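Hey, can you fold this one?
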Amino acid sequence: MNQLNLQDIIVIGLGELGSVFARGALKLGYRVTPVLRHSNLTDIAESTLPVAVIVCVGEQDLSSTLTNLPTAWHDKLVLIQNELLPKDFQKVTPDATVISVWFEKKKGMDSKVVQSSPVYGKQAQLITELLASLDLPAYALASADELEYQLALKNVYILSTNIAGLVVGGDVNELAQTHRDLLSAVVTDVMALQQAQIVQTLDADKVMNDLLLAFKGDPAHKCMGRSAPARLARALTQGQALGLELPTLNKIASQTQA
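Sure. Predicted structure:
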């Protein structure tokens, strides 16, 4: 605790999403300490007693970031990454709080909500309050099983829209209304990829219904982001390692020379 009796929240990575969480923490009266690439983690750990450590680095930097964090922070971690599943953090930080972020923040634009963001873990109430201060809806999940499903669902949303977008472009409403066969085929492969990496059995009808519900939250959301080719390549690499065929994804890769 510092001399002003403010509680600390540490934010690792101050990109677009990191800045959102930092602003919410400041609005709630916390002292925010940013961790940047040049920051000395040991010095920060010795000079702060954080109530939460929000990890806002990109997906590709998550593993190395978690490995290098002070042990004292492990039970205070909050993870916000896309393409995240329990296997990606449970061995290193089993007590981490995880949020499946369903709002988009781009440079120069306000945050755009698709739907309420589910969060699970010790810091769930803090995170929902932090986001509420910015008028961003979030809600606490009751179990780790619910979190696993929500993470898998978000992965299906991101991967399916990005990968199908490589073929047809457009937005998610067009994808659902005009290219439903392509969407279904891609979702089947992406679901198989998720299923191979989680414990529970995914219900295909429920996943599709929840996916279409998310589409309605932002029907003009563009399918193909700039990360789409990399997401497809990563999905195929994971599928090969897991012994999955993923016929539709492989066909799209051959068509787009991914």
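The longest helix spans residues 144-168. Let me know if you want another pass with a different chain boundary.
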